[in-house]
Structure formats: C-alpha cells, structure tokens
Design a protein that fits this description.
The protein is α/β, with parallel strands linked by helices. It has helices at residues 81-92, 114-117, 122-131, 147-155, 233-246, 277-283, 357-374, 398-409, 448-454, 468-476, 534-537, 558-568; strands spanning 21-22, 49-57, 100-104, 135-137, 178-179, 183-185, 196-201, 204-212, 228-230, 251-257, 262-263, 272-273, 290-293, 299-305, 311-317, 323-332, 344-349, 377-380, 421-425, 445-447, 460-467, 490-492, 496-500, 516-517, 520-521, 527-533, 550-557, 579-581.
Length: 582
C-alpha cells in the first residue's frame, strides 16, 4: 500500500476543541500592524473598538444528518446539519449585543449523501437557510452538475429533468448568496455569480470576497464548466480588495475554497500549514484581514504573515458540519478596519448538543419522499469494507478497490467495452459499506441509499485503449507535490497489481516491471482496455494521463452499475491489497 506522512483527515480528540488562537495577546506590539496599534501595541482609539462574532464552516456536502461511522472525535452524534444548527444557535447567544454573521467556504452541495443528493441538493440549501447562513463562496462541488445547475440552485426553478419535488412549494433558490469572484464567463459578460458582498453589522461594514480554487476544472466534468474560466486566487482577491477599499470598506474577509494540511494535533492547532494555502495566504494583499478556507476537510486556526509581515488568521472547519469556527472579529469604528491583534478564533467540535428540530423536520420531509426507494435492499456484505473520502485519500483502500471491481464487472464483456483493468479515484468513493445497519436495514444488508452514498456523482463509465506506458504514467500521477493533496490514490480492479516505492522521486515511484495483469507483466508498448468513470477519463484530480486513452466507448451510469454489481454478488468481503508498498 502507498503511505503518506500524515493521515489527511486525522483529527484530535474532543478535549482540545476549545483551544483558542489569537494573533497577539492584548497589549503585544505587532510592529505597526494594519490593525491600528501604536508602537506600544495599544489600540488607537480603543474606546471605539467593537467586536463581531463570525461563525464559519466549509464542505457541508449536504449532510443534514450526522455522518455515520465517524470516529475522529471519540464521541457520538458529531456534526451534520441537525447538530451544526444547534451549535450555531448556542454560539450566537454569546455574540456581543447580537452582532453575528455566519459564513461558509464552499462545497455546501455536491458529493452529498442520499437524502440530499437524490434531490439535487435542494434539501441542503433548505437546511442552510434554516441555519441562518449569510454568505458562502462557491467550491468545486458546486459545479458538479455544471454552471446552469449552479445558477438554478442560486436563483430557483424546478429541476430541468426531475421537475418540482413539491408541486405546491417549488424550489425558490438560496436565500444566501454564493460568491464566485474568480469564475469568469468566457463571453466577456463578467463573473458567473457576484464576486463580493458587503454585510453591515451595527453600522460597521465587512466586505467578503468569495472564490473557489483555480484548479476546479480538474475536479469536475469539463463539459459542465466549458463556458467559464477559473482565475488565479491571489490576483483575483487582490483586485477585489482594491475595489472594496475604493468603496470605503476596510474590513475584508476572503472566503476561499482551497486549503492545506496543518501540523499540530488539535482542531484549533496550527504550527504550520502546507501549500497551497500557505503560499496563497502569504501573497494576498495586506488589505485582506482574514481567510476562511476549506477543501481539504481539515480543521485549523493558523497565523500566516501577509506580504507586509503582519500576521492574520487563516481558518478551516473540517467537513460535514463536524466543526464550526468562532472568530471574534474586532473592528475600530473610527477607521472601519479590523484590529488583528485583538481578533481571536477557536474551532468548536459539533458534539454534545441536541438535534435542532427545524433541521430534523426538513430531513423528515425529504426522507418521506425518498423512503421507499432508499430502503430497497440491493446487496449484502459479510464484513466491513472501508475506505471512503472522509479518510485518507492518499492510500489504496478496500472500498475503492471494490468500486473498481464493480466498474470492471460492468464493462468486461465483449459487447460492454471489453475492459481488462479498471480504476477509480479514492476521493470519489464517498462512503464505506459496513455490516452494522446504517439506516433501518438488517445487519449486513446494503440498501439503495447506501449504494448511492458510495457513488453520488452521476458519472458515466467509459472504456478506452491505453498503452502500458500510459497506465504507468497514470499511476505515477497519484503523487503530485504541487497539488492541494499531494497524494491521491487510485483503486484498482482484481487481477491488476503493481509495486510502489514511496522513497523514490516523483515520476519514478512505480517499481520497474512490477505492473502485472492476471500474473502476466504489462507490456509498456502493449494496448489494454481500461475502464473508469468519465471524471477520470477527462483528467479529473490531475490524472491527465487518462486523457491519452483512445477508442472511447460509453457505458452505464455509476450508481446503476454499482447496484447491479451488488445484486449479482451478495455476501461481499473486503478485497485484498493490489498495491505492494516497498
């Protein structure tokens, strides 16, 4: 198996959840910081300082209910909209004179579990409105179904295929704005959605700039975003900050769907954080006071110096509503600017609270609509098969290998594509299959809803011709150090094996001569039929070697194929490793 230096989603226990982070203790000098301190560190006009509570989260992914099988926090009922809403309401009770805003950093929809994803994430939006979300950036998953669908999610209207789910209550769009400052329409008519918004709190103005990562086109179907381009995060933010300042806005917060991997064991710890967010934060204009980030599903509260050498907060709140960041943003009423030295932030684990009845009612409303389909038993497992995207995406996992097996099963016939090998990206496998009941099924049974949770994206399976050299090139792209997640592993189908030496440099990690198919060495010059989801065949997750495939033949939709595979193969067990690590 491949190994990585750090478990991508490992999060410390609940005991450290309330460790606050401040840029400097009150009275500590910041060397003439943007926050308006004199050389002694005393706030100029300190009698005019007012604080605003800023609550933030990211990567909600339609989790109205608490994620199952979550052992990151050593506690039950962690996260999900029902509990996130209660935590937000509890924290707002401590807001200074009610001054509070709630913001998010993208991936609120897409990659969602059955309850929301089946209905194109209309339940997710409804739950976020009930939570009082004020503004969010877009993330890459907001583009899973293309730009037209994102615009529908923002502005309203019934789904173009499925129609209205409730005839007397058609979908009316999101009450909160999604911001997309770096998503620009190719026809020259501007951004797809507004890039900024200004929120007024007790007469004070705070400007928000919202963006997704520039690499979004590598993470979604290219055809769905063909009409837009995704621009550099730093140049976009700096340009938008100048525009906000010309409008007299001094307090500026960036909501960015991009992140890094922190060093430090607690949810609020951050001795340092990896690229790409570190370099992005170091290059963003000093006019920007704080970055709320996401994408890597990691929790952190960091201090990263701006280009002027002044520290500022960079935060992230894990995923699925399991963590919420509470920032006490201190503003100077005279200047309108943020006093960074007095601004603090802490990550709270969403646990130990009751479910919010409003979100529960929303979940129950949609559950009643989906119930009969969701409960249908489509297969069974004899043991746990684990390895979903909430864990380490940088290693081979049994669940990813099982999905690859299912892809091969659906395409190996001469009239189905003639596939000999299949691959899938570990990050696209969104759930494990466990013996313990997830919904109300019997032990070991797999329901349609569980199958959906594994494959929620609606990808199509394709089969292509690839040379042995092309296959090796794709395997080498599991490690790309300049990528947000340097390690992104592939699940591989039964019969295909290879060896991986992680001590070797980039481009040379696949052990020479180790690729085998049914015991026979892969010929670099030979041609093989390879099956995968169209996400990978289009170069998703930076696996552009898969775009070298030729003689493409389309196949079934991912979920339909997976359900058929489960029905035909009851009593599944976890596949053995197909990758040998040296």
């Amino acid at each position: 198996m491949m190994t990585v230096p750090r478990r991508l989603a490992g999060i410390a226990a609940v005991a450290v959840a309330a460790t606050a982070f401040t840029l400097a203790a009150p009275g500590a000098a910041l060397g003439g910081s943007k926050g308006g301190h004199d050389k002694h560190g005393h706030g100029k006009g300190s009698g005019h300082l007012q604080s605003v509570q800023l609550l933030s989260f990211n990567d909600y992914h339609g989790h109205l209910e608490s994620p199952d099988g979550d052992d990151f926090y050593d506690t039950d009922e962690v996260g999900g909209g029902e509990y996130l809403a209660t935590m937000l309401n509890d924290l707002r009770e401590d807001a200074p004179k009610g001054r509070s805003l709630t913001v998010a950093a993208g991936d609120l929809i897409g990659g969602s579990p059955f309850l929301s994803g089946l209905f194109h994430d209309e339940p997710s939006v409804e739950s976020l409105e009930a939570m009082g979300l004020d503004v969010s950036s877009v993330g890459n998953h907001e583009f899973d179904e293309g730009t037209d669908e994102l615009l529908r999610m923002q502005h309203g209207g019934c789904h173009p295929v499925d129609g209205c789910y409730f005839a007397d209550d058609p979908y009316d769009g999101a009450a909160f704005p999604w911001l997309a400052a770096n998503v620009v329409k190719k026809d020259g008519s501007g951004t797809l959605l507004p890039g900024t918004t200004i929120k007024k709190v007790d007469g004070m103005r705070i400007g928000f700039i919202g963006m997704t990562l520039e690499d979004t086109p590598t993470l979604v179907s290219p055809t769905g975003v063909a009409s837009v381009e995704f621009r550099d995060e730093v140049r976009t933010a700096n340009a938008e900050a100048k525009k906000l300042k010309r409008r007299g806005v001094e307090a500026i917060v960036v909501l960015l769907h991009e992140g890094g991997i922190p060093a430090g064991g607690g949810v609020s710890d951050c001795d340092q954080v990896s690229d790409p967010i570190r370099t992005i934060a170091e290059r963003m204009s000093p006019a920007i006071d704080m970055l709320v980030t996401g994408h890597t599903h990691e929790p952190y509260v960091c201090s990263i110096d701006d280009p002027a050498g002044h520290p500022r907060l960079v935060t992230s709140a894990a995923s699925y509503g399991r963590v919420v960041t509470e920032t006490t943003l201190v503003l100077n009423r005279r200047t309108g600017d943020v006093d960074r030295a007095r601004t603090t932030a802490v990550n709270h684990i969403v646990a130990g609270v009751a479910a919010d009845p409003a979100i529960t009612a929303i979940a129950e409303k949609w559950d009643a609509l989906s119930g009969p389909l969701a409960a249908r038993v489509v297969g069974s497992v004899a043991e746990d098969i684990t390895g979903d995207s909430s864990g380490n995406r940088g290693i081979e996992t049994p669940m990813a290998d099982l999905v690859a097996d299912a892809i091969l099963w659906g395409t190996d016939g001469a009239d189905e594509g003639g596939a000999e090998i299949a691959f899938t990206n570990v990050g696209g496998v969104r759930a494990s299959l466990l013996v313990a009941p997830k919904y109300e099924e019997a032990s070991g049974e797999v329901t349609y809803a569980e199958a959906y949770d594994v494959n929620p994206f609606g990808n199509l399976i394709v089969t292509v011709d690839m040379t042995g050299a092309d296959i090796e090139a794709a395997l080498e792209q599991q490690y790309v150090p300049t990528r947000g997640r340097p390690y992104l592993a592939l699940g591989v189908s039964e019969g295909f094996t290879y060896a991986w030496d992680d001590s070797q440099p980039q481009g040379g990690k696949v052990v020479e001569g180790s690729m085998m198919l049914d015991g026979e060495a892969i010929d670099p010059a030979g041609t093989y039929r390879v099956a995968m989801y169209n996400f990978l065949s289009g170069g998703g997750d930076d696996f552009d070697a898969f775009t070298l495939g030729t003689d493409l033949l389309g196949g079934p939709e991912d979920l339909a194929n997976f359900v058929a595979f489960l029905e035909a193969n009851p009593g599944l067990t976890a596949p053995e490793d197909r990758v040998a690590g040296l």
